[in-house]
Write a structure and sequence with these properties.
single chain, alpha+beta, 2 domains, five-stranded mixed beta sheet, two-stranded antiparallel ribbon, 10 helices, elongated
Length: 354
């Protein structure tokens, strides 16, 4: 059975690799910015390094590519029994494009921080402390979306790790669905049934418990009379909601969806019990937002330019973690559980060799 939850789980390793790379890039940017920050020609000296920041980010991301490619193949192989390269190669190529955008975003964040700091010593009475604060503010603003974050073609803003996790989970789920459909066809079947994962999503609710065809026979919805499996000579009537292609075009299996499909065997498969859970979905989305905030503040700690900035970031991070605890405590009845690994920069996964 295609399981979006499993696809998301195996995608986290890839997200951890990119989160690790982002932490290295952020630390390098902070080290460059603080260098000679009291000198009068600081802004001019730092500005000529914009290109070097981009190249350094490209190097960090390129260094982990062998590990990324291994994880991509491993992930697809976990959920798909066919030709892995069919789904692994497009994802690897997509990630290369993401890396290029991320490296450029890192350079732009660095440039913005230099410009912010350069304004602080242009007037009489400005101080090194003022410059540090200006640079730190600009750096913190960049880290709110991830120092290597970017805007995609549809205008949505992403952090690097967040985008990779979404793209990887989507690719894995595509492979899972393809494998499930191939298995149905190989068994001589044509029907699948949709069931929900925990905290089902509102966009897919209309498809819960519905039967779909893997070909066009059920397009637009249809009533099919088919032989009952396990009972020779008996015919059964099956009402289908449409084809799988139609359901997907209408939003089924959107990014981060947790719904599933399985083979429907006429005369044998019962309809799953569906329990709409809009509050559970909202609670899970809220938890993910709180986890992202904690990770952002951990990045801010790592990029603090001085003691006061470090103390402020640490205090903000502790406050964010308290909000996570409060949310989990108030949402336990909805099945919400805290996983502290998702609050760490590397998503709790050990990253080595990159």
């Amino acid at each position: 059975m295609a399981d979006r939850g499993r696809a998301s789980e195996v995608a986290q390793r890839l997200a951890a690799l990119y989160a690790h790379a982002e932490a290295l890039i952020t630390g390098s940017i902070a080290a460059r910015l603080v260098r000679g920050i009291a000198s009068g020609d600081w802004a001019a000296r730092r500005m000529v390094e914009v290109g070097a920041v981009r190249r350094e980010a490209e190097t960090v991301l390129a260094r982990q590519r062998p590990a990324v490619d291994v994880e991509v193949r491993r992930m697809i192989g976990t959920v798909y029994r066919g030709d892995v390269s069919r789904y692994a190669a497009p994802l690897s190529e997509r990630l290369r494009g993401v890396e290029r955008r991320a490296a450029q975003a890192a350079a732009e964040a660095y440039r913005g921080a230099v410009l912010a700091g350069g304004l602080q010593l242009t007037g009489t009475g400005q101080t090194e402390l003022g410059r540090r604060r200006g640079v730190q503010r600009a750096l913190n603003q960049a880290m709110e979306q991830g120092i290597t974050g970017f805007i995609d073609r549809r205008g949505r803003r992403w952090s690097l790790a967040g985008y990779v996790e979404m793209a990887a989970a989507t690719a894995a789920h595509e492979a899972q669905i393809a494998g499930e459909v191939a298995a149905v066809r190989a068994a001589g079947g044509v029907l699948v049934i949709v069931s929900a994962g925990p905290q089902e999503c509102e966009r897919c609710r209309r498809w819960m418990g519905k039967v779909l065809t893997v070909d066009a026979t059920g397009q637009g919805g249809a009533v099919l009379v088919m032989p009952a499996e396990g009972t020779p000579g008996r015919m059964v009537t099956v009402r289908v909601a449409g084809s799988l292609a139609e359901a997907r075009a209408a939003g089924l299996f959107h990014p981060r969806c947790r719904c599933r499909i399985g083979r429907y065997r006429p005369g044998l498969t019962g309809r799953p019990v569906t329990r709409p859970d809009p509050e559970g979905q909202k609670a899970r989305d809220r938890l993910r937002a709180l986890e992202r905030r904690v990770r952002e503040l951990r990045q801010r700690e790592a990029a603090a330019l001085d003691g006061p900035a470090l103390a402020a970031a640490r205090e903000a991070r502790k406050t964010a973690q308290a909000r996570v605890r409060e949310h989990v405590a108030s949402s336990q009845a909805l099945g919400i559980r805290r996983d502290t690994r998702r609050e760490s920069l590397n998503l709790g996964l050990r990253v080595s060799g990159v």
